[in-house]
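Inverse folding, one chain.
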C-alpha cells in the first residue's frame, strides 16, 4: 500500500474513534465497520494506532449491545483481528475483560455473531495454554460445541470456524487440557466427520489427534476410549484415508497410528481389513511423515492373523514393502522388517508363503540383517533380529517338509531351498553355527540338520 494512502487512512482514525464513543448507533456502526476494514488489511499498519487510541474498552463494552447485533458483530470482528496480531495485543484483550462478553455471544440468536465470537476465542486460545485454560474455565467449551449441534442449519463458514476453534482448544503447547474436554468433544467430532468439507474434516481429525495422543490416556486403551463413546468414529476416520488431499490424510493417518497398537485387541476387529486396503494409496505419497505413520500402523496390525496376510497380499502391498525395505531410511526399515517377517512366520498357507518368497521377502529381510542398516546400526536389537530370521526359515521348512508321498510338496520344497540359497539364507545359517548365544546356536544347527536330512531323503 502506498505511503500516501496509508497516511490518508490513518488521518481518519481519530474521528472514527470519536464516533465509536457516540450515542448514535448509526455513527457507531459506521465507525466500527471502517475500523474493522482497516484492521483487515494484510499486515495492517494501523493496529498500534487503533490500540493506542483508547478505543479497546469501548469495543468490548459494545459486545453487550444486544439490541444492535450488527454493532456487536463489527466490534467482535475488530477483536478477532486484534487477537490474531500479537501476543501483547491478545493479552491486552484479556486484561480488558474481553473473554466474558465473547463467551456470552456464543449464545446469540445471530449465527454470524456466534461464529465471530468463536473465531475470536479461537485466536485467543491458540496463543498459549494459559489463555486456553482461561476460556475453558468460563464454561465456553460446551457453548462452542453446541453451535454445531445442528449442522444442516449452519453456514459453511460457521462450521469451519467451530471445527478450527475446537482443534485449537484440544491442542497443547506444553500441557494438554483435561481429558474430560476431549471426552466431551468426541460426539461432536464424530458428527463433524460426516460433514463434506475438507477443511472441516482436516481440523476435526487434528482435534482427534490432539485428544487421543494425551499421555493420561493409557496406550492400551486408546481405541476403546473412543469406541466406548462412539463406536463409529474410527471407521469414519479410516474412510478419510482414501481422500487425495494430503493435508487431510496427514491427521487421519496420525490418528490411526495412535490407535493401531491396540486395534487387534479391541472388542471389534473390523478395522484392520479396511485399514490394510487403504494403505496402498498412502504408500504412494512421497512424504516421509506419511510413510513413517503408515508403516508403523501396518507393523502394529500385521500380527498372527492369516486373513490379514491375505489382505496384505491382495492389497498389492508386499512389492511396495520389499522395495521400501531395500531402499528406505532405517527408521522405516525396522518396521517393514517386522511386517514381512511376521507374514512369513505366521502364515500356514503354502500358497501365501510361495507368493511371499516369489516377491523376495526372505531375501530382503536377510539382506537387511546381513548388509543393510541392521549390520551397522548398534541401536538395533541384533539377537532379536537373528531369532526372528531363524523362526522365518524354520516355518518355511516346516510348511514344505520333504515327503516321499507328496510330489508337489517336494517341488515346493526344492523351490524354497533354492530361494533360501539365493537369498543368502544358507550363508546366514553357516555364520551362526558357532554363535555365543546357546538358543541361536542350537536353533541354527537344528535347521541345518533338517535341511541335510531333507536333502538326503530327496536323493
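Residues assigned per position:
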Amino acid at each position: 500500500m502506498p505511503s500516501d494512502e496509508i497516511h490518508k487512512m490513518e488521518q481518519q482514525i481519530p474521528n472514527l474513534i470519536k464516533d465509536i464513543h457516540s450515542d448514535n448507533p448509526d455513527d457507531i456502526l459506521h465507525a466500527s465497520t471502517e475500523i474493522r476494514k482497516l484492521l483487515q488489511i494484510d499486515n495492517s499498519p494501523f493496529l498500534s494506532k487503533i490500540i493506542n487510541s483508547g478505543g479497546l474498552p469501548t469495543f468490548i463494552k459494545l459486545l453487550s449491545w444486544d439490541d444492535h447485533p450488527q454493532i456487536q458483530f463489527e466490534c467482535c470482528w475488530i477483536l478477532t483481528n486484534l487477537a490474531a496480531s500479537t501476543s501483547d495485543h491478545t493479552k491486552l484483550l484479556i486484561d480488558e475483560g474481553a473473554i466474558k462478553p465473547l463467551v456470552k455471544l456464543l449464545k446469540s440468536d445471530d449465527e454470524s455473531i456466534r461464529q465471530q465470537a468463536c473465531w475470536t476465542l479461537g485466536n485467543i486460545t491458540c496463543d498459549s495454554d494459559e489463555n486456553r485454560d482461561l476460556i475453558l474455565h468460563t464454561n465456553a467449551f460446551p457453548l462452542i460445541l453446541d453451535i454445531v449441534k445442528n449442522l444442516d442449519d449452519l453456514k459453511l463458514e460457521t462450521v469451519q470456524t467451530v471445527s478450527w476453534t475446537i482443534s485449537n482448544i484440544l491442542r497443547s503447547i506444553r500441557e494438554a487440557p483435561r481429558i474430560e474436554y476431549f471426552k466431551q468433544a468426541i460426539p461432536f467430532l464424530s458428527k463433524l466427520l460426516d460433514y463434506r468439507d475438507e477443511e472441516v474434516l482436516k481440523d476435526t481429525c487434528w482435534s482427534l489427534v490432539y485428544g487421543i495422543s494425551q499421555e493420561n490416556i493409557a496406550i492400551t486403551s486408546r481405541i476403546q476410549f473412543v469406541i466406548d463413546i462412539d463406536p463409529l468414529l474410527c471407521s469414519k476416520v479410516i474412510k478419510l484415508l482414501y481422500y487425495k488431499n494430503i493435508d487431510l490424510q496427514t491427521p487421519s493417518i496420525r490418528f490411526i497410528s495412535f490407535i493401531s497398537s491396540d486395534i487387534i485387541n479391541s472388542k471389534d476387529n473390523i478395522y484392520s481389513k479396511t485399514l490394510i486396503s487403504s494403505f496402498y494409496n498412502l504408500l504412494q505419497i512421497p512424504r516421509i511423515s506419511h510413510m513413517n505413520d503408515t508403516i508403523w500402523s501396518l507393523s502394529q496390525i500385521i500380527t498372527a492373523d492369516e486373513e490379514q496376510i491375505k489382505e496384505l497380499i491382495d492389497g498389492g502391498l508386499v512389492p511396495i514393502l520389499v522395495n521400501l525395505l531395500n531402499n528406505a531410511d532405517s527408521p522405516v526399515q525396522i518396521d517393514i522388517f517386522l511386517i514381512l517377517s511376521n507374514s512369513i512366520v505366521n502364515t500356514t498357507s503354502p500358497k501365501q508363503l510361495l507368493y511371499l518368497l516369489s516377491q523376495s521377502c526372505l531375501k530382503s529381510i536377510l539382506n537387511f540383517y546381513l548388509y543393510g542398516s541392521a549390520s551397522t546400526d548398534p541401536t538395533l536389537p541384533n539377537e532379536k533380529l537373528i531369532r526372528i530370521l531363524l523362526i522365518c526359515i524354520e516355518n518355511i521348512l516346516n510348511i514344505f517338509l520333504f515327503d516321499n508321498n507328496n510330489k508337489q510338496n517336494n517341488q515346493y520344497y526344492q523351490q524354497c531351498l533354492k530361494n533360501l540359497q539365493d537369498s543368502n539364507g544358507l550363508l546366514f545359517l553357516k555364520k551362526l553355527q558357532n554363535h555365543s548365544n546357546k538358543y541361536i546356536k542350537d536353533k541354527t544347527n537344528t535347521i541345518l540338520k533338517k535341511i541335510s536330512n531333507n536333502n538326503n531323503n530327496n536323493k
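Residues 215 and 430 are 46 Å apart (CA to CA). DSSP finds 28 helices and no strands in the chain.
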